[in-house]
Write a structure and sequence with these properties.
Layout: H1 15-34, H2 45-53, E1 64-65, E2 72-75, H3 77-83, E3 103-106, H4 118-123, H5 131-156, H6 163-172, H7 176-180, H8 187-206, H9 210-228, H10 234-248, H11 254-276, H12 294-310, H13 327-344, H14 350-373, H15 388-398, H16 410-436, H17 460-481
Antiparallel strand pairs: 1-2, 2-3
Helix pairs in contact: 1-5, 1-17, 2-3, 5-8, 5-9, 6-13, 6-15, 8-9, 8-10, 8-15, 9-11, 10-11, 10-14, 10-15, 12-14, 13-15, 13-16, 14-15, 16-17
InterPro entries: DUF2142_membrane (IPR018674)
Keywords: Membrane, Transmembrane, Transmembrane helix
Pfam family, one: DUF2142
């Protein structure tokens, strides 16, 4: 594993070159995940595909009037794609789909306003008569949006104050986050919002330069609108993010209270999105336990709740929960995440201690409310992706005011980078294997015995190798760009 010296001289790559290499490597890494699964592979993607195709209203050949107000006629392959392989990990994605010009009436889509329209409306621009080409374009655009927003925030952040963005995202995102980010599931924007909103708002609160304040405020508002405009429950994460930043930087001054008006505005926008749609219950009514008493639901779910948290790191499957991750993935990522929290919470001041406790409380209360409100148990319907934004927020506030290098030695940083790189490479290989041949076929070579792949000029093994190297390169660059300067604490008033 690489070892990084914890001195200011560790980064020998010019800043401008580094600023180009890091986002390029991240985009390639996310692009490999965009190609790692077929159309319909992310959770409920049949629903999201039809919603995207109808995201700009009725269009001939793409989305036409249905038999009822909450129904539409859409290309049949949008509904067939997931049924080809979902829930059976030994099935590849090789089944033949119907022609795209064959339309079918369905109520499977966002036709009754269950989700906010922003996510679907944006990606509807890329909908066409070619399912594969459209899905690839949409996923790559989603990856590019993530890279653009996080890179802009990274470049604005002063050296010494980047740990809550970079390392909180890195230790929280493998494998579930990196699978979702370039996907067509609206949860991808929930993840992006969770990573960026609270950091941008916190920097806005403590920044004194007018231009930088405007930039941070703009990024915070954009992240809030994107998150809340994709999933209504992201409004909760937006409010929590604003609250966390406000606690960390609270001061009883006119400047703080005036600046907080932006936070109030963000919360109002987020709540407005939440109230404008019908996404009040996350799970379907037919998954309810029905006869379970309130005490049974609360006690049973409290005991099982850590299983939901650990699912973020790979103990639950990807996709339709049918792509099982090897132990090397989830053991590695769980250890690194736990170590990151342990390092981050060392000797916290009162504000940070309160914020970390509040973030952890949210990680318990929010999923517990969903589970009890909808009458289900952990493992029945509520999925780890619903708590991923809270996992990210907890890591971020734990790493608040940490050094960019987290105070780790070169060897320790090498273990973190190496561990995350290996976990990503194994997860990516496993995910590609599951769709190319089904997981009943083994071996390193993904091209041999391939039953499905995109009609592109390169094979799945190439995507796996390049994507794995790209993420490792990104993490190495992040580590080398870190330095041992402690961010100055905000002045107590």
């Amino acid at each position: 594993m690489p070892e990084f010296r914890s001195t200011a001289a560790r980064s020998r790559v010019p800043a401008i070159l580094r600023a180009l290499i890091m986002p390029a490597a991240l985009l390639i890494a996310l692009g490999s995940w965009a190609l790692a699964s077929p159309p319909g592979a992310s959770p409920d993607e049949d629903y999201h595909l039809t919603s995207i195709w109808c995201g700009l209203g009725e269009r001939p050949g793409l989305c036409e009037e249905g038999d009822a107000p909450t129904e539409r006629r859409v290309p049949l392959p949008l509904l067939e794609s997931a049924g080809c392989f979902a829930f059976d990990s030994e099935k590849s994605a090789s089944c033949t789909l119907s022609p795209m010009d064959e339309l079918v009436n369905t109520n499977r889509g966002n036709f009754a306003g269950g989700y906010p329209p922003l996510f679907y409306g944006l990606f509807a621009v890329f909908a066409s008569q070619s399912l594969d080409a459209s899905v690839i374009a949409m996923r790559l655009v989603n990856a590019a949006i993530f890279v653009a927003l996080t890179t802009a925030l990274y470049l604005l952040l002063p050296r010494g104050r980047r740990a809550p963005l970079l390392w909180a995202a890195a230790i929280s995102s493998i494998p579930l986050g990196i699978f979702l980010i370039p996907s067509l599931n609206p949860s991808s924007w929930s993840v992006l919002s969770a990573m960026t909103l609270w950091v941008a708002y916190a920097e806005y609160l403590r920044e004194s330069r007018r231009g930088h304040r405007i930039a941070f405020a703009s990024l915070a508002v954009l992240a809030a609108v994107m998150g809340s405009g994709a999933r209504a429950d992201s409004a909760v994460y937006a409010v929590l993010g604003v609250g966390a930043a406000s606690i960390l930087l609270f001061e009883n001054s006119r400047r703080f209270w005036m600046s907080s008006l932006l936070g109030v505005g963000i919360c109002v926008v987020a709540v407005s999105f939440f109230l404008s749609v019908g996404q009040s219950a996350i799970v379907a009514p037919d998954t309810s336990t029905g006869d379970a008493s309130l005490i049974t639901l609360i006690f049973g779910n409290l005991l099982l709740l850590p299983q939901l948290w650990s699912g973020v790191f790979g103990t639950w499957g990807l996709g339709w929960l049918d792509t099982t991750m090897p132990g090397v993935v989830w053991v590695t990522t769980l250890i690194i995440y736990g170590a990151g929290l342990f390092v981050g919470i060392g000797r916290p001041d009162l504000r940070k201690a309160i914020t970390v406790i509040a973030a952890f409380a949210a990680l318990v209360v929010v999923p517990m409310y969903i589970l009890v409100h909808d009458g289900v148990m952990v493992g029945t319907a509520v999925q780890p992706r619903y708590v991923l934004p809270l996992i990210i927020l907890l890591a971020g506030v734990a790493l608040w005011r940490s050094r960019d290098d987290l105070g780790l030695s070169g060897a320790q940083m090498g273990i973190v980078v190496g561990g995350l790189s290996i976990a990503n490479a194994v997860a990516l290989h496993t995910n590609i294997r599951r769709y190319v041949t089904g997981d009943d076929v083994g071996g390193v070579d993904l091209d041999g015995q391939a039953e499905w792949w995109w009609k592109v000029g390169f094979g799945p093994t190439w995507v796996w190798v390049v994507g794995s190297i790209a993420l490792a390169t990104f993490l190495i660059m992040v580590a080398r760009s870190s330095h041992a300067v402690v961010a100055p604490a905000p002045v107590e008033r």
